[in-house]
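Quick sanity check, Outer membrane beta-barrel protein:
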Amino acid sequence: MTFPSLIRALATIGLALTLPLAAARAQTAAPTDDLVAGSVLVRGRIEGVLLKHNGTTISRIGGYLDNSDSVTPEIDLSYFFTDHIAIEGETGLLHTTLTAKDTRLGNVSIGKVSSVPIFLVPQYHFLPNSRFNPYLGVGVAILPYFNAEAAGGLVRQLSVSNEVGTVFQLGIDYRVAGPWYANFDVKKLILSAHATANNGALSASGQVNPWIIGAGIGYRF
């Protein structure tokens, strides 16, 4: 065998050995910026909270409890257990103005209350290797309230109970460039509410089922 023939033979053998290894590596290696198993996605959003009454009733004076809409910042973190299954934890800061409407005394200002909503939502992501990655989630919503401020006048004291409910979520992540993602997200909360004023002289209870619509940016680690 001549030297050039030996070189060609060795090259052929080397190519035959390396091609299957390269193919296997290409099949198992995921793009580093995709949302796949082991990914951590941190997002920041601005959310609009549409808090309309839904069957709340007020003792003694009648009417219903109206909650003001608001805009609030939030931050969340999603961990991907698999390419499709993730769990998201979210928190923010919410300020709400309460008004008793259509009562026998007319419209009565109740006061203001703040809360730090906490959501824990398992999610299913449909297209982990796509630039567009829509997802659905159902989880738990916890609303611990604090800093309840009575409006004064007819309402001298205000207390709002902490609540636990259900959150339904629909959203989409869009990979903008590298590890950066844009996000649009809609949530529906199902929970009860209970508030008392003037040390229990007045009380309101019922369903408060707000829509939460948000948009923001995320970074994939």
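Posting the structure with no commentary besides this: Helices lie at 3-28.
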